[in-house]
Design goal:
The protein has 14 helices and seven strands. It has about 350 residues and is α/β, with parallel strands linked by helices.
């Protein structure tokens, strides 16, 4: 239940902050347009009849303002934009109206707040997402090289593409036309640079996964087939606090549950919702494709991962490994994080 006297809604942009506040005792409304400096915004909130609580939408401005409010002793909630309730007939959208709408929702306790990560978790998340960006850049650079060669009727038939042999074959390609040679060299160089960036980020992630606050979770997740260090570390930093999720809720949190449109006696389900964390969902789907292969005796790689994890995590991983199901992968991921807290969950 909302217990503060004043509810404050902020519409935060890079160059401006539009603020609206409602005094729950007198009903007075306060409005202002502020510069995006944390100190000015906090001073404006402090000038209101207290105590106050603040909310604003999650967005590209990050969590710095929220951390500043928390350090100042002011309650601040960051609302999930996709969960904001709006009247169907409301067709006028301005910064001032958005700020007032947030202030009203906060007073009614009708907001769905996102979890604010720690500074360390946000830094690790940025590292993982930088690696994800490089993966996309590398894929597009490789496509440009292969399609440039295909337009010239040059196709590689020497086996798997983008192996050492394929790279040697690429370096041997030469063209008589200067413009074409320059274009090929530029695209080939982009591939090599993307590979170098990816390798540097991979090394940094492996080092952080081996000695950080996320290491225990990484070791537990590594007990599952299809989840290596990069995937485990990505899931650990993207999900963050595993205690807030259960084996049944993580599917909805990551958008892996089916859409549904049911009314009366009819029930209709469609494709997955694809809401929530896109990167974590991709990691789980990719892990599920690796997990679907038949389970055999654990090899040297899996045995080495098991040596790093507690006995309970090894047992849970061994129990889940024979079952090739995405549902099993996502449920076991939650169970293998803080095992002591998740031991009672079932599939």
């Amino acid at each position: 239940m909302f217990t503060k006297r004043t509810s404050v809604g902020l519409d935060v942009h890079a160059r401006s902050v539009v603020a609206a506040a409602i005094d729950g005792v007198t009903g007075e409304v306060f409005r202002d347009r502020l510069t995006p400096g944390n100190e000015e915004v906090i001073n404006w909130v402090r000038s209101l009849p207290g105590p106050s609580a603040v909310t604003y939408e999650a967005g590209p401005t990050g969590f710095g303002l929220s951390r500043a409010f928390t350090a100042a002793g002011i309650r601040c909630e960051i609302v999930a934009p996709s969960k904001i309730q709006r009247p169907a007939g409301d067709r006028v959208k301005t910064d001032a109206r958005d700020a007032m709408h947030l202030a009203k929702l906060l007073r009614l306790d009708e907001i769905v707040a996102v979890t604010v990560p720690s500074v360390e978790q946000e830094a690790a998340r940025d590292l993982v997402r930088a690696r994800e960006d490089v993966r996309g850049d590398l894929m597009r650079a490789r496509h440009r090289v292969s399609k440039l060669l295909l337009r010239q009727g040059i196709v590689y038939y020497g086996g798997q593409a983008w192996t050492g042999t394929h790279l040697v074959w690429l370096r041997a390609q030469h063209f008589d036309t200067p413009g074409l040679q320059l274009a090929f060299d530029a695209e080939h160089e982009a591939v090599l640079q993307a590979v170098a960036r990816r390798d540097r980020l991979d090394a940094a992630i492996v080092a952080m996964a081996a000695a950080s606050e996320f290491t225990p979770v990484v070791h537990r997740l590594g007990c599952l087939r299809g989840i290596s260090t990069l995937t485990a570390f990505g899931l650990a930093v993207e999900v963050g606090d595993w205690d807030r999720l259960t084996g049944s809720r993580i599917g909805a949190y990551l958008g892996l549950v089916p859409t549904e449109s049911s009314s009366g006696g009819s029930r209709s389900q469609g494709s997955i919702t694809k809401t929530g964390n896109t990167h974590a969902r991709r990691l789980l789907v990719e892990a599920a494709w690796h997990h679907r292969k038949p389970y055999r005796t654990p090899g040297a790689t899996m045995a080495a991962r098991w040596e790093l994890a507690p006995a309970a995590a090894r047992a849970r991983g061994h129990a889940g490994n024979p079952l090739p199901s995405l549902c099993v992968v996502r449920s076991r991921c939650v169970e293998l994080a803080p095992v002591s807290a998740r031991a009672q969950w079932s599939l």
